[in-house]
Amino acid sequence: MAVTDEAILKIKGMITRGELGPGDRLPPEKELSEHLGLSRSSMREAVKALEVIRVLDVRRGDGTYVTSLEPRLLLEAISFVVDLHDDDSVLELFAVRRILEPEATALATARANPALITRLGAQIDSVDGSTSVEGLVEHDLEFHRTIADAAGNRYLASLIDSLSSSTVRARIWRGLTQENAVERTLAEHRGIVTALERGDAELARALTLVHVSGVEAWLREWTETTTA
After folding, report:
1. What percent of the chain has pLDDT over 70?
2. Which SUPFAM superfamilies match (predicted)?
3. 146 with 197, same domain?
4. Per-residue pLDDT averaged across 162-166, rounded?
């Protein structure tokens, strides 16, 4: 194992054992390296790596702190990598969404309450035939974000949000090139809300699967046509 990797694992161990918690300040570099039996250079590299993935926050002139470790913060590193995808890999992103989002919707069904149904309904009512493609996609993002949040799993919601945000370009292109994109999207959203309101998890899961798969199928067909 590389020395830097060992240093990362040892700092991670201090966090998982509770020796360091969210917001805590790390001991000075010299003290910490001696405590863990590592060189100061390897410790320095480990801190840099953990700063990149938002586990540590290095404050110049103040010290190094453990971040809040909130899911949305930690998943920013994944979001950054996802943003570097090429057009073909968008299909893989949709495939992951197709796996995760129906399950998130099913989980949200058990937690659905009148406030959630009203909120989702208001989001749908805010869109009509005069809404721009960008506005439709923004609505779609917010709609799915609301349901994912309602599932009650912050890590799942953050992951879905990262993946969903990274498919915006494809969804805008679909809205520009496919007829009745607004009407189709809103109809599918209404069906999902109705299933949530009825407490029918299986129907909510199935409708979400069809909804996400529709964009994926369009993108796959468009990609095959343009590369033929």
Report:
1. 82
2. GntR ligand-binding domain-like, Winged helix' DNA-binding domain
3. yes
4. 77
Kindly state whether residues 122 and 176 are assigned to the same domain.
yes
Domain that includes residue 29, residue range: 3-69
In this prediction, residue 42 has a pLDDT band, given cuts at 50, 70 and 90, of confident
105 and 141 co-located in one domain:
yes
Mean pLDDT of the chain, nearest integer: 83
Put residue 38 in one of left, alpha, beta given phi > 0 → left and psi -120 to 50 → alpha.
Answer: beta
pLDDT at 81: 46
Distances in Å between the Cα of 182 and the Cα atoms of 22, 109, 133, 137, 185 are 43, 25, 8, 9, 5
Token pair in block for residue 204: 């909510």
pLDDT at residue 113 above 90? Answer: yes
Are 105 and 57 members of one domain?
A: no
Return all residues near 26 (Cβ < 8 A) that are at least 6 apart. Answer: 11, 20, 32, 47, 56, 63, 64, 65, 66
DSSP 26: P
Pairing of strands 56-59, 63-66: antiparallel
pLDDT at 116: 97
For residue 165, the model assigns a pLDDT of 74
Tokens standing for residue 63: 């010290």
> pLDDT by residue (tens digit) across 196-208?
999 999 999 999 9
Which helix (H) or strand (E) segment is 16 a member of?
A: helix 3-16
Check whether residue 79 and residue 65 sit in a common domain.
no
Same domain, 9 and 110: no
CB atoms within 10 A of CB 16: 9
Provide the domain count of the chain: 2
